[in-house]
Each structure stands twice: as structure tokens, then as C-alpha cells.
Design brief:
The structure is a homodimer of 600-residue chains.
Chain A lengths: L7 H11 L2 H4 L10 H19 L3 H6 L3 E3 L2 E3 L4 H10 L18 H14 L1 H20 L2 H12 L3 E6 L15 E4 L5 E11 L8 E8 L12 E6 L1 E3 L5 E4 L2 E6 L10 E6 L5 E6 L5 H37 L22 H33 L3 H37 L10 H8 L9 H12 L6 H17 L6 H26 L3 H5 L2 H30 L2 H21 L4 H8 L4 H4 L6
Parallel strand pairs in A: 3-6
Antiparallel strand pairs in A: 1-2, 4-5, 5-11, 5-12, 6-7, 7-12, 8-9, 10-11
Helix pairs in contact in A: 3-5, 3-6, 5-7, 6-7, 6-9, 6-10, 7-8, 7-9, 9-10, 9-11, 9-12, 10-11, 10-17, 10-18, 11-12, 11-13, 11-14, 11-17, 13-17, 14-15, 14-17, 15-17, 15-18, 15-19, 17-18, 17-19
Protein name (chains A, B): Butyryl-CoA dehydrogenase
GO molecular function, one term (chains A, B): flavin adenine dinucleotide binding
Pfam families (chains A, B): Acyl-CoA_dh_1, Acyl-CoA_dh_C, Acyl-CoA_dh_M, Acyl-CoA_dh_N
């Protein structure tokens, strides 16, 4: 039977041949686990995703949440799916045993979660947002806040949201206007409007816990004056029972291009003057708290983009195998039977490109999850810090690269299905529409590029960058043991070497104060850096594939050959093409910067 | 007031500074015309498009045609729009005065039509399809067929469709199964099923004339056995009145990603055994007739893709000018006012890229229309033939390049609007969804690439290619008069020179029988060839802009500077990047060809 969410063989390759998931069980935190418990969790995730999430993916798209009497209504299939997810424990997969979790490595919890993201991006958002909100309270909340709000989230009774964006400010959080005034009882009264709040209302849980960014009366201007508040939909009494409705009004729903099953809401806080909120952590530290949670959230967004790409790839692959049409150019005889379209070289190109994008990004996302585990469970503090520095550096890539290239994969999946792909009778056009959100939310593509070039590269004296360069060089060294990989290794080495020198130059310009000019082409830099990273991950996969081939297991041969071919595609078709972007960066090309408003 | 469909200044630049529309009035056929009549036609098109087409563009998307009692129902706004279009004479804009037309050059009729395509792609399809069907009958029908079917189409009473695709065959027309049996009265009885027939049913006209591809009983296999038939929805009596309903059944409607306002139908011909059709032209020549009309149709499809890109570009430009958000990287002081987002270099990059794609493709489409006029109205027969050869060669580019790059433009427009762009409250996401059809219909991207590399290049001994190379060289020569254009000219010359040698090599391989291997990377070839052609058109525009600047008219200065900057973007950012594709083509890279089904 063909797989529709992801390739189990490829997941096993990632976990056990590339990323050494079993090695994690040597660490104290994961000592109770082994490959069997990992595989059992994955099997459960897959079966719930297939049984409860995938079947209503299209229905959720066709039946958007409706706004009725101030509330958002969903199709009935969402709740049983989310309930099954909760019951199986996936909300707390990475949480400790004592906290009611499975104490799985993040690598494994992401691998499990990926199945839901592939099956139904929209329904999966509700637990995803809840996890993010819960992690914030867990990290920065008081014991009392944890008792009152976090525990019911862990128990699956309360859901959560992240309420950042405001209509006039968009991505510019420095300019938010939502205010929080201290009240006599130590809580706060909030007033303001938020938009694009995913999961901002729904009937799936007893309560919704909004994590809201707002400014205190004495807040300094800009991002240094933003505080974080818990604002529940219903107040919670001391005994944990629900109190009265808080002054949080669902002002309306947004109607989106895709991802339609997730409510995207406009919320008004404090229209009636009594919106109660609770300060999380210290005043004015809200944005730094958000940023500390962002690595994990952005891995999640990146993996979401990967999995929509993956689902589209697998669907178009199956279609190409089954659909007979046309003949090969050198055997046009119309009396012969048509071939399946996978026989056409251009269809194979579109499949191989998808495979390279999707499996490259899948590896990258899981690599980042593994790195996240290193930041929390490596024994040595210096090593944990190193892992953190590298993860910080890679986060903009982990978020943005799949959002761009797995979206391209979706476009190719539509093209392979042709006219059918353009109809809503097939799933691929929805994958594209759903995925189109990913380059926008959780920091747009442009913001990721500024984060990388303007902040992450130079962080900690460039420690993350140096480590990355060293790791790439080590992979290159190991690749030298396989002469068949020379043609794959060399373009990567050429790119990385030149990228290093371009990077040094750009950082020098930044240090000397040429900020706007240097950041002007940050999008080009993001593209090249991302291709270098994914190229490295593909070379790593290629080495593992060579090692796999050497074991000479007949059933695995095709799998490894496919890996090598996808690596070849990426490293010889895509990686060398980045040289031109480097030329533009080297020349400090000012074509876009110099363009004037009046000239358009 | 800002323009929403296209820039009138840019259209005037194309018509009167680049493409010498006034020169056409020296030709006998267009002697009655002058710049005033041209501008009057354009003004009328613009005002009808703005008044009748644009206002229901979103409504048509949200209210797809419904299938009721075997008929397709549309929203009420479509008919008045189409009626206004017909009344103003745009259906017959290029037709002769005697035939009831405006006898405009195709260049001008396309320029007029472009306004409707930008305003409402879906509603515009109905007259577009009718024009295509009418042209087929005009070129290949008998006098009696013209009297009975063409005249009512010209009069706007009958509409038309093109009925080619069948469920099992898709793009592989060689494999169609619809059959046509001769009847005693000289007509035929058809039996078969067609899908994706745009405009296959609607209540806009008294009758619908389907141009159907089918096979006669004695048909040779493959594309050489396809004949063309007129199959009306209602039979037409000798006096021109409508007879009984023909045996053409609307089997259902397809529900598409975009372009939703146009009915996409499944039609069953002859379910009840009495579907009457009339052979057009000679038996077995149907496909060659279709191909002869294809240049015009594909210019139309290409221009449709351009105009969706254009509408998105103008919308996102206006948005970027009006939306304040964030601050520039070197002046982050939060107490200063936010800047409009057009001030951010990365937003300017996305706008400049759109401008380069959209205005480059707009020029290309109009250039092709001008060439079409040359094929029919140049005095010298050899010159007409030359124009035809060049147009044949360029047609795959004119169709596919805008379908790919103006679609990318739409993606950038969404990105500029961010979260808002992703909602259906703004028009840009619909432009993307509408435009996504264009790389699929009228010959997919892959088919265009095979048409170019496998057929068009070598046609007529390569006459079209030689002429194109000569024209590009002439533009390069003229560019030398402007030293400021050296940096733009050189990358184009480098690309074209290497492309020539790669082309010779590939044609040699084809001639020596390595067909499948040589065509395997046809998509790369299409990309490079397209960029060379559009690069040439941009260099041409840049020359005209330099000439315009030299005239030193204050009001025009910004316009020409913008042209030069967009040319600079395309020729220095995009054109040199094609060198890597040439490297792959030169190496006869077999990465995709060698990929095996079992390896995926």
C-alpha cells in the first residue's frame, strides 16, 4: 500500500542512519526509551493521522469556520481528531514523565508530529498553538500561573494562542498599541486589538489561553517595552473551575487563501473595560520570552512546510506512476500503448526536484530538532551552548527554506497532475494554498533574511557560524572516502568557501556601519546560505546512502540509489547556480536599493 | 488616480516608442487608422473593463457556476459585462470593416483585450473562446458553415468553445477516442466524452458552437487521424433560426483552484446516438487546423498570464506605497514614525522583480502581436514569411514565459501584502490562483519546451532562429550607442552567444537520432531561451528609455529611469544566472533522465 503522509523508510533512514536517534537513549533523560518505543510512538502518530486527520482535510478547506453569535463554529470532524491526538499523549510527547508526558526526544516528537502536519495542516494547528502557549507559561510563568493555566493545557482541557499582530503594525511589534494597566489585585486590564490570531476562537476546549503582547503604562518605546500576558477567554477560579467570560471579543474571522480549517481571528481585548490579564515574568521582557521560544516554534513551522511538500510529492509520484499518457519522443508510434507519465523525463525532473526539496528539508528540520535535544540534554554545558549557538544560527533557514522550496514542490505537484491538479477534486492545489502561509507567518521571509544576516551570523562572536563551517568541512572529509561523491562534494565546497569570504566581507561592512546598504540584498544571502546548508545535509545523506549500498541489502538498493540521485540533483543542479547570487553579493549590487518609489 | 489594470504610460511607450504602432497605419489595411483611433479604442476598452469586468472579479470567484437541471448558471454580472464588450465591438476588433469589425491591427486588439484580461480573467474567457472558435470557422469552414455558424458568432448571438481534451488522453491528442460517423445527409454523428471544456455551457448566448476534435471511421492512428467538427448545442435551421437541442450533454462542472468564474465542463457527445456534427475542412486535418490557429491563441494565453501579473504588481505597488510599517535598518529609533514599506529594500526588490517580469512579458506579448500583423499585412511575401517563421519560433516562449514568471510575480505580490495578501479580503491571492492555470492549459510548460527544442528551432532550416539571432545582434549594435547600457548589453550578448553554440550542439544530437536524451532537459532550454528573448526585449526597452531621457521631458524622467532600472535588474540579476543551465545543457546532464521509477 502506498504511503500518503511521508515515507516510513525515509523516516527510518533519518532517525537511525543519519541522525542517530538511538544514540539519544544513552542520555539520562531518554534512558527509558529505545528504538521500539520510538517506533511505537511513530506508528501511533501515523495511524491517528491517517484515521482522524487526513479524512477531513478537504472538508475543512471547503467548510471554513463560520462566525455565529460571536463564536467560531467548526466542522464536527475536528474535535474527535484533536481528542485522539490528546488521548494518545502527543501534546506532551516531549514533556517529562512527571509532568504527564512521554519524555521523548524533540527529534521523535517532531517526527511524530510531522504525520499530523502532512495529514491536515489546519486541524493540527490547534494543538500546535497550544503547545507553544504552554511552553511559554512553563518557561516563564509563576507556580500559580502554571497551576491555573498550564496544567489544564497539559490535560487537554484548555487550548492556547499567540496574540502578537495588530492591524496597523503587522510584523513591526515595536509599534503595538495594546495597553495593560495594573489593577488593585495584582492583575492587569488590557485594551487593544489583535488580528490574524490563529485558533483565537473555537469550540474545541473548555477555555482558550491567549498569550498576549501588550505595553505597560511606563513602557519604554519600541521592542524593549513589550510585556507578555496571560489573557484567558474565561477567567479561572481558585479551585480551577471556570469563572465568568473575560472581556475578549471575537470581532471577526479572516477568510484565507488556504489553511482554511484554522480559525484566523480578529480579537478585541477590553472593549468593555474589564479584560483581565496576568503578567508573565518581568515587565518589558515579553518579546525576549517570545524569542526564546521561537527556535522551537520555527522548527515547527518549517516542518509544517516540509510536510505539505511531502504530501504533494507522494501524491504526484503515485499519480505519475499510474497515469498513462503519451509516448517517449523517440517512439511516437501511436499504435503502441501510452506510457505512464513517470517515463517522461520532464515529469521525472519535477519529481526529482520535489524529492530533493522535500527530503532535504525534512532532514534539515529533523536535524534542528536533534540539535534542540542537544541544547537540553548534552552532559557538558559547553557542548550544550555550542548546540544552542548553531541552532540559533540555523533557525532562520529551518523556518524559511522549506517555506520557499517545499512550496515550489507543491507547485510542481500541481503541474504533474496537469488539468486535474488544478481542480479541487485532487488534493495538490490545497497543499499549495495551505503552504502559501508559511513564508508569511512566524516572521516573513524578509524578516528571516534580516535575522540571519543582521543578527545571527555575528552572534556570540560568530561561534555558530564557525561551528557550521567546521561541520560542513567534516562532512566533506568523510565524503572523500567515496570517490563516487566527488562530483557532489566539490560544488558544495566551492560554494561554502566563497560564501565564507562573502560573509566576512558583509559582516565587516555591517561592523563599519553600512547597515542599510549591506542588508539590502539579504534575501539573496538567505537563499545562498540556505542552499549551502541543505547542500551539506544532502552530502551527509549521500554518505549514508553510500554506506547503505555497501551493506548490499537487495531490498534497500533502490532506496539508496534514489537518495544518491536526489543528492546529485541538488548538489549539481541547484548548488552551483548560487554562484551568481554570490557575485551580486560580492559586488554589493545596489540595483534594488537604488530603485526609487517614483520610478515604479 | 492610480491605475489598476495596466499602466497607460507603459502601454503608450510600447505602442508608440517601442513597437511603432503608428507605422502600421502606413499599410493599406490600417490606412483608416491613426493614433487617435487607436487611443480611442484603448480608452473604450479600459472604461468597459473598469466599469463592467473588474467589479465582479471577486464575486465570480466566490460564486462558482452552479450545475442545475443539466445547465450551468452564472452570477448575473457576467452577461452585462460580455454584452458591453460585444456592443463596443471588441469581439471583432481585428476583423475587417466589411465583416463588421474595426479592422484594427492585432497589436491594438491585443492591447485593448489586455484590459479585460487584467480586470477579470474568468469573464473574459467567454469572448476569448468565441474568438478562437470563430477564427477556425473563418479560416477553414465552408461558405455555408460561415453563414450558419460564424455570422451569428460575429453578431454576438452564438458563443464558441474548443473541445479537445478527453479524460484518458489529457495532452496526448493522438489518443482521443471521440468518433464521428458519416450520416446520409453529409453531416456526422459524434460519440465521445470531453473534459475541461471552458465555456462548455452557460446562459450567455443563444447557442454554443463547440469545435470538436474526433476521429473518422477510416482515420489513421495518431495525430494524423484527427478531424475537426462543428457541433452546436442547438441545431441551426436553414433560415438561421434555432432548431432542436443537439445531443450534447453537460455531464458536470469541474471545481478549480482559480479562474472559477469560467465554467469548466465535462461534455458528453452522442449519449443518445444523435449528436450532429459538421466536418470542417478536410478529413484528418483537424490538428493541423488547430495548430494554425495556435499562434494567436497562445499569444492570448500568454497575455492573459501577463495581465494577471500586471494587476497584482500594480496592487502590491499601491499597497507598498500606502502601508506604513517598520523602520529602516540604520534608523531603528521607535519614537520615529514608521516608513511606508516601499522604503524597505527587500520590498523594492519584490516590486522591481515584478516590474521586470510583467513589463518584460507585456512587451513580448505585444511584440508577438505586432509580428502577427506583419504575417498578414507586410507588402512583401518573403517578409511575411520571415515574420511567420519568427512568430512560430517565439510562440512557445510567448505562451510559457509569462505563465511561469508572471505567476512568480503574483507570488511576490502576495508576499508584499503579507498576512493581508493571504486573505481573500485582498485581490492578490486570486490573481495567483487564476494565473496558476496558464502553465497548464493550451499546452503545458513541458509541451512548450518540447515544441521549442524538438520542433520549432529546426523548422524551415532554422530560418526563425537565424532571424532572431540577427535581430538580437542589431539591438546590441544600437545599444552600443549608449555606453551607459554596456553593463546591460554584455550579459545578454554572453548568454546569446553561448546559447547559440549549445543550440547547434543539441540540434546536431537530435539530427543524429539521440532524441529522448536530447529532449530530456528541454525545460532548462526553454528557461534559458525565454530569458534570452525577454532579455533582448528589455535591452530594446532600455534603448528607448535612453532615447526618451535624451528628449529631457521632466514629466517622463521617472518613467524612463524606472525602465532602465528594471532592465538593469533583469539583465544583470536574471540573465547571467542562466549560465548554469547552459552548463548543464552543454554537459548533456542526465541526472533526471537516469532517475528510475523504483528509486523514488
Amino acid at each position: 500500500m502506498s504511503e500518503t503522509l511521508l515515507s516510513s523508510r525515509n523516516l527510518a533512514f533519518e532517525l537511525y542512519e543519519v541522525l542517530d536517534a538511538e544514540g539519544l537513549t544513552q542520555r539520562e533523560r531518554f534512558a527509558e526509551h529505545n528504538r521500539e518505543t520510538f517506533d511505537a510512538a511513530i506508528g501511533t502518530a501515523r495511524s491517528i493521522a491517517e484515521k482522524y486527520f487526513a479524512p477531513h482535510n478537504r472538508k475543512g478547506d471547503e467548510n471554513e469556520p463560520r462566525y455565529e453569535d460571536g463564536q467560531a463554529r467548526l466542522i464536527p470532524e475536528v474535535k474527535p481528531a484533536v481528542d485522539a491526538f490528546l488521548e494518545a499523549g502527543f501534546l506532551n510527547a516531549a514533556r517529562s514523565f512527571e509532568a504527564g508526558g512521554m519524555q521523548l526526544p524533540t527529534l521523535l516528537s517532531q517526527a511524530c508530529f510531522a504525520h499530523f502536519q502532512a495529514a491536515n495542516a489546519a486541524t493540527t494547528s490547534y494543538p500546535f498553538l497550544t503547545m507553544g502557549a504552554a511552553n511559554l507559561i512553563e518557561s516563564f510563568g509563576t507556580q500559580e500561573q502554571k497551576q491555573r493555566f498550564l496544567q489544564p493545557m497539559i490535560d487537554g482541557r484548555f487550548f492556547g494562542t499567540m496574540a502578537l499582530t495588530e492591524p496597523h503594525a503587522g510584523s513591526s511589534l515595536a509599534d503595538i498599541r495594546t495597553r495593560a494597566k495594573p489593577a488593585a489585585d495584582g492583575s492587569y486590564r488590557l485594551k487593544g486589538n489583535k488580528i490574524f490570531i490563529s485558533g483565537g476562537d473555537h469550540p474545541l476546549s473548555e477555555n482558550i489561553v491567549h498569550m498576549v503582547l501588550a505595553k505597560l503604562p511606563d513602557a519604554p518605546p519600541g521592542v524593549k517595552g513589550i510585556s507578555l500576558f496571560i489573557v484567558p477567554k474565561f477567567l479561572v477560579n481558585d479551585d480551577g473551575s471556570l469563572g465568568p467570560r473575560n472581556d475578549v471579543l471575537l470581532a471577526g474571522l479572516f477568510h484565507k487563501m488556504g489553511w482554511r480549517g484554522t480559525t484566523s481571528t480578529a480579537l478585541n481585548f477590553g472593549d468593555n473595560g474589564h479584560c483581565v490579564g496576568y503578567l508573565v515574568g518581568q515587565p518589558h521582557q515579553g518579546l525576549s520570552y517570545m524569542f526564546q521560544m521561537m527556535n522551537e516554534a520555527r522548527i515547527g513551522v518549517g516542518m509544517g512546510a516540509v510536510m505539505l511538500g511531502y504530501a504533494g510529492y507522494l501524491y504526484s509520484l503515485e499519480y505519475a506512476r499510474e497515469r498513462p499518457q503519451g509516448r517517449l519522443p523517440d517512439s511516437k508510434d501511436p499504435s503502441t500503448a501510452p506510457v505512464s507519465i513517470i517515463q517522461h523525463a520532464d515529469v521525472r525532473r519535477m519529481l526529482l526536484t520535489q524529492k530533493a526539496y522535500v527530503e532535504g528539508a525534512f532532514d534539515l528540520g529533523l536535524y534542528a530538532a536533534r540539535l534542540f535535544d542537544d541544547t537540553t540534554t548534552l552532559a557538558d554545558e559547553a557542548e550544550r551552548r555550542q548546540a544552542h549557538e548553531l541552532l540559533d544560527l540555523l533557525t532562520p533557514i529551518v523556518k524559511s527554506w522549506p517555506s520557499e522550496f517545499c512550496l515550489k514542490a507543491n507547485e510542481l505537484a500541481i503541474q504533474i497532475l496537469g488539468g486535474h491538479g488544478y481542480t479541487r477534486e485532487y488534493p495538490v492545489e490545497q497543499y499549495y494554498r495551505d503552504n502559501r502561509l508559511n513564508p508569511i507567518h512566524e516572521g516573513t521571509h524578509g524578516i528571516q533574511s534580516l535575522d540571519l544576516l543582521g543578527r545571527k551570523l555575528a552572534q556570540n562572536g560568530g561561534a555558530g557560524l564557525k561551528r557550521l563551517i567546521r561541520l560542513i568541512a567534516e562532512t566533506g572529509e568523510r565524503a572523500r572516502a567515496h570517490p563516487s561523491l566527488d562530483a557532489l562534494r566539490q560544488p558544495l565546497e566551492q560554494l561554502v568557501s566563497r560564501l565564507q569570504s562573502v560573509t566576512l566581507g558583509l559582516l565587516g561592512d555591517l561592523a563599519s556601519g553600512k547597515v542599510t546598504a549591506t542588508l539590502a540584498n539579504s534575501a539573496l544571502y538567505l537563499k545562498v546560505f540556505g542552499h549551502a546548508v541543505v547542500g551539506w545535509r544532502w552530502l551527509e545523506q549521500a554518505i549514508r546512502a553510500e554506506e547503505g549500498l555497501a551493506r548490499d541489502v537487495a531490498a534497500d538498493r533502490d532506496f539508496y540509489r534514489g537518495k544518491l540521485q536526489a543528492a546529485r540533483y541538488f548538489l549539481t543542479w541547484e548548488v552551483p547556480a548560487c554562484q551568481h547570487e554570490l557575485t551580486l553579493l560580492e559586488a554589493r549590487d545596489a540595483t534594488c536599493l537604488e530603485m526609487q518609489d517614483a520610478w515604479f
